[in-house]
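PT: before anyone asks, these are the final sequences, not the draft ones from last week. 120 residues across everything. Please model them as a single complex and drop the result in this thread when it's through.
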Amino acid sequence: MHELSVALRIVEALDQELVGEEEGLVVTAVSIQIGTLTGIVPEALQFCWDMATENGLLQGSKLDIQIVEATGYCAECNLERPLTNLQSMRCPICQSPITQISGGNDLEILTVTVESPDDA
Ligand SMILES: [Zn+2]
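LR: through. Structure below.
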């Protein structure tokens, strides 16, 4: 299950980041951005999130996923183009093969919303 390992990797990264923070800190929401080229299925990742956050600081947190469309650089047009067909990887305008991917191939953690127990 690819998405579960992705979810666990996010949890691990956040755990490390939150080490040494205030005791009793609770993460309420995590916002991430995933490119369409990562092959990650947002629904599946959402589903795995609860499992990955069963214990620890992220327990009960919400996962907010934003999708980033893939883009590539077309040498023929000398422009960045959206990659509408991920199978063929061609410029949607001139149909030249895209040789350089410029976006949509990574996962980024955007924001982490935390709540300290005193706020409640
Ligand atoms: Zn083109």
